[in-house]
Design goal:
255 residues, alpha+beta, Aminopeptidase, nine-stranded mixed beta sheet, 9 strands, 28% strand
């Protein structure tokens, strides 16, 4: 008889006591990613402000994965479902709409993070499915996702538009995280060329990366998807990260 999977996935409105505990394990992001001002200001508020769209996985009393998503109005003036500024833009829109009482028209995933000791168990697939189902229950016909391909950092100089065309002999994406999304029924629709923008002083970049940042031009930083542009005369460096917009249809759409 097969063993029962002890990991349970629930929305945070079902278990609000987990809203602060979803941060209990490291997220695996590189230090320089903490320099994104949008994430620094807003990401920590997502579990409590949008609990119906967020999920947590628990094994007994331990939180072992989180899935964060937000709703937003994509039909207002100057807005669209798949903005070029991707992750940063939808997070700002979500909180703007919350403050102004605007009704959302769609939902976007922000992050799926799994405790390292639970990797390789298919939990990321389950978390993605849970986020999609949660968006459907809220009446949305799709869950959008500005996906950060996990293997892109190994091909820093390759434009994202070319990277996403990489395929294995079986026809699936060469990138592992894009492969998860496609296997789950997601369709890559557009590149978000400026999904995150992280600027900082050269001192900050040296602290984040351990690199000298003492020459003008592009610097390849471990974990970055594109080069970081260094300007020594003005004492700063800027990283602009592209993501891939993926659309997942929900059961609400099918029904």
């Amino acid at each position: 008889m097969a063993e029962t999977d002890p990991v349970e996935i629930t929305t945070l409105d079902e278990r609000p006591e987990l809203s602060d505990r979803v941060w209990d394990f490291p997220d695996g992001w590189q230090d320089f990613m903490t320099g994104d001002p949008v994430a620094a200001a807003l990401l920590g508020r997502v579990p409590r402000d949008f609990p119906r769209y967020c999920v947590a996985a628990t094994d007994g009393d331990r939180v072992v994965a989180r899935g964060l998503a937000v709703p937003f109005d994509a039909e207002g003036e100057g807005r669209e479902e798949l903005p070029d500024r991707g992750w940063d833009r939808v997070l700002v829109w979500a909180f703007t709409d919350l403050r102004l009482g605007r009704a959302p028209t769609t939902a976007s995933a922000l992050e799926i993070a799994v405790d390292r000791s639970y990797l390789g168990r298919g939990l990321s697939h389950r978390m993605l499915a849970a986020l999609r189902e949660t968006a459907g229950r809220r009446g949305h016909d799709a869950l959008l996702a500005p996906v950060r391909p996990t293997g892109k950092h190994r091909q820093v100089g390759l434009p994202m538009s070319e990277y996403v065309r990489g395929r294995r002999p079986d026809g699936l994406p060469t990138d592992a995280w894009l492969r998860v999304h496609e296997r789950a029924g997601g369709v890559a629709e557009k590149i978000a060329p400026a999904s995150m923008t992280i600027g900082g002083s050269l001192a900050e970049w040296r602290q984040w990366t351990g690199l000298p940042f003492d020459r003008d031009g592009d610097v390849e930083v471990p974990g970055a998807l594109t080069p970081v542009h260094c300007d020594t005369a003005h004492g700063h460096a800027v990283y602009v990260e592209p993501n891939v917009w993926v659309r997942h249809r929900t059961r609400h759409a099918a029904g």
